[in-house]
Amino acid sequence: MSRHRIVVALAAASAVVFLGAAGIALGGTVPEGHVGAMAGTAGCGKPPALASGQHTINSGGQNRSFILRLPPNYDNNRQYRLFVGLHWRGGTANDVDSGGGDGYNWSYYGLRRLSDQANNGTIFVAPQGNGNGWANPGGQDTTFIDDLVRRLDGGLCIDTTQRYAGGFSYGGGMSYALACARANVFRAVVVYSGAQLSGCDGGNQPIAYMGIHGISDNVLNIAQGRGLRDRFVRNNGCTAQNPREPSQGSRTHIVTAYSGCRAGYPVVWAAFDGGHTPAPIDGGGDGWRTWTSGEAWKFISQFGGGGTTTTTTTTTTSTTTTTPPGDAECKVSDAINAWNTGLTSTITITNTGTAPISGWSLAFTLPGGQTITGGWSAGYSPMSGQVTARNVDYNADIAPNASISIGFQATHTGNTSAPDSFSLNGKTCAISS
């Protein structure tokens, strides 16, 4: 990856104003909170209709292209996560897919490497913008992404609740346009050093949002990135704040997870002391060893997905339990969505006390037959019986009246009930529906 090449190619981007996106959303509205039972596409259970490599598609009367990257040992009965990687101005789909000068380590902003290290649960695709950009006139690029997603859904096995998009600079602007116009198609977006360059058609629905921006960006000023972020702070019902950002010359970064957001719709802001790059390294320079890959992967993988194998139609049930208040310093709600022999649990923890919580562990007992197979936004141990969920770095603090959301995926043998009780740092919590 050549940072100099990227910056020179993008120098004029911030001065351009583009038309808003338009078009018809795909697949209907995703259930509230995106925590419904996983929904496989038409390609599940069928031989793959697409292979890794470059493909063309007709969209809006134009021949458009994209590069597809299937995970090793693709399984047509496994519902995969989808990540759409969008290139910068002057960049190409091949730059995103290949990783440029950094190769595999930076492929899809470093996320492909991390997915492979996890469980190979992600399908990656890199669409090519017209003129190596994402002007999106009349919404034509949004329509292209619609057509691309539709084709992938028809030919591959994808979890429709686990679609993500992310990109740098112009690609960040297009990711933002998708957040505005396709919040019912994509689960979350990651915007690296972006601005409103590709329009914002709609922009009133919540979507999980992560923004990454340098405080000294002289191509797309950080104020532009803050403006994108603040739209989804409002849409997602988060508590407004001015998150800390590193001082100039510190060569560090600060990641802030907003509090008070609606369950399932987090907003994360990562500011760094640096310029216009998607790959800053603390201490100076940029490259694939950046911290941004790990933070972006942590953000999108918190929602689960990428590992479910199904061969039959799934059904959804919801179980809620209400008990009298506990020690009146915490409240927990647990949304269970079950199918066949699996379930997901989305747990919302609220600090109802008057003092902030710094570092937490949530203890609960799983009903017999339930075993956790993966989780997000917390570490879980053991995986059955009496379980303790412990905070991760970015959600250790819970302010008074603030909430955080965690969750896990589990197998079951028939009992899909929620735990009867929860205790936070040793104190029993009230349970709400």
Automatic annotation (TrEMBL):
Q: Which SMART domains match?
A: CBD_II
Extract the Gene3D superfamilies matched here: 2.60.40.290, alpha/beta hydrolase
Q: Does the keyword Transcription regulation apply?
A: no
Region (Disordered), start-end ranges: 302-325
The highest taxon in the source lineage is Bacteria
**Alphabetical keyword list:** Carbohydrate metabolism, Hydrolase, Polysaccharide degradation, Secreted, Signal, Xylan degradation
Q: Where is the composition biased (Low complexity)?
A: 309-323
Localization per Swiss-Prot or TrEMBL: Secreted
Q: Which residues form the CBM2 domain?
A: 323-432
Q: Which Pfam families match?
A: CBM_2
Can the keyword Transit peptide be found in this entry's annotation?
A: no
The UniProt similarity line reads: Belongs to the faeC family.
Which named protein is this? Cellulose-binding protein
Q: Which organism is it from?
A: Lentzea indica
